[in-house]
Amino acid sequence: MEISNIDISTLLNMIDTFYNNAWNRLTIILIVVGSIGGIVGVAWPILLKKFSDYRTKIEVDKLEKNLKEQFQNLSDENVKLIEKGIEKEMNKLSEAIDKVISKKLDDVDIKINVSKGLIWHTLGTIYEEKNVLKSAFSYYFSAFKCYFYGKDESNLQNIILCIRRCYKKIKDLLFLKGIESEHLNLINKLKEINENSRYSNTINEMKEEFNSLKKRLKEGKELIL
Questions:
Q1: pLDDT over 90 for what percent of the chain?
Q2: Are residues 69 and 121 in the same domain?
Q3: C-alpha–C-alpha distance, residues 91 and 225, integer Å
Q4: Is residue 119 part of a domain?
Q5: pLDDT digit string (tens) for 146-201?
Q6: Rounded Cα–Cα distance for residues 20 and 22 (Å)
Q7: Is 69 within 8 Å of 44 (Cβ atoms)?
Q8: Do 128 and 195 fall within a single domain?
């Protein structure tokens, strides 16, 4: 293959063949950038050392040497093409890194929600034991939201049991109407994650329990436990 006729596609394919995974592609991009202009600067030796762990240093040095020799013989036009190709690859890499960072932030947010959920859950239990239902429901519904956004379905199911248990303790229609919006929000959230109908029974049962309780309270009848 004539060096003068090399194009960006051929060069990148050659590099991709040598290193066939994402981390190693990053290594080669850094090598190429360092070869054509020292763009990486002070960070170059550090980055090269870190990523050389994925291949022996001999292989990295060999590839770097070969690439430098080829770049010395490239025309200005081809160098510019390669620079554009590298810029494109670096943009892709930047986007990939952004996605990783975003995912990490999402993971942190999930953990925070679960932690808050556990706190609200505990406080709700304390108030339920004291029969202070207004506070118990407030904390239970808050815990439900945290578990929902924290994607903790195990604790989500536990908090649902707590809420259903407290429904049976309500003896005032106005109180029931006061938490109806939270009840409906809970039902709607369960519908959002009702894949494979795994929450269908819970949704139907809770709707029936709530509506039946409302009807009994309207008629002045207490729930017989």
A1: 44
A2: no
A3: 64
A4: yes
A5: 999 999 999 999 999 999 999 999 999 999 999 999 999 999 999 999 999 999 99
A6: 7
A7: no
A8: yes
